[in-house]
Amino acid sequence: MSATVVPLPPNSSSETTAFLRRMASMVSGRNGEMLLRAAALIESLKQRAMTAERLYHQTQEESTRNAERQQAAEHASDAMVSQIEALRAQLAEVTAAAAAERAAFDAERDKLLGLMQDAEGHIGKLTTELDGLRASVDSFNETLVAVPIEVLRLARTQFDYLSNGFERKGDVISQAMSEIGGFAIDQAMTAKKPAC
């Protein structure tokens, strides 16, 4: 509950105390003392009222400053809350983008791992086939037989014909085997050529 401060009229208390003191000097005894005490009490109350009024104005000014500070703090707090919310939204976007990139990276890695495993399987199969072809060439070289050169040329022509036929059909393995056979015949014929 706020108190209404009414300023005292100027010099009214001074005139009153001066009047009471003059009256006290004219009156003797207890009445004079009472008048002097009343004058002193009025001056004391006047001082207290002035002090109270000054304190009231100071308190009111302080209250106004506090209200302004509170309002400024509320504005700053609202701005900080908005900024925090914006940062949270930005963090959520960055986190979502990072998660999406991570998922894409994981999917690509899994795809590459699958391709690598398939390639390793193919390499294993081709290595096995190559070993088989080498073994057959080695066993072929170990079992050489004397054959007339005309028969070898005829066999070479047949291997070329087979190789071309397999190539048209897309049978790479049979084509490779035919070419290896033709190559073996070429080597046999080269080894048998007379030195000049």
What's the helix count? Answer: 4
Largest sheet geometry = none
Please write the string of helix (H) and strand (E) elements. Answer: HHHH
Share of β-strand residues:
under 5%
Span between termini:
135 Å
Helical amount = over 70%
Structural class call reads mainly alpha
Coarse shape: rod-shaped
Low-confidence stretches: none
What is the β-strand count?
0
Instruction: Please state the CA-atom Rg, rounded to the nearest Å.
Output: 59 Å
Overall mean pLDDT stands at: 85
Taken together, the total number of domains comes to: 2
Describe this structure in words.
With about 200 residues, the protein is mostly helical. The chain has two domains: about 10-100; about 130-195. Helices cover about 85% and strands about 0% of the residues. The protein has helices at about 10-25, 30-140, 150-170, 170-190. The longest helix is centred in the middle third of the chain and has 113 residues, at about 30-140. The model has no long low-confidence stretch (mean pLDDT about 85).
Can you give me a brief rundown of this structure?
The chain is mainly α. The protein contains four helices and no strands. It folds into two domains: 88 residues; 67 residues.
Which features would summarize this protein structure in a list?
single chain, 196 residues, mainly alpha, 2 domains, 87% helix, rod-shaped
List the helices and strands and how they pair.
Elements: H1 12-26, H2 30-142, H3 149-169, H4 172-192
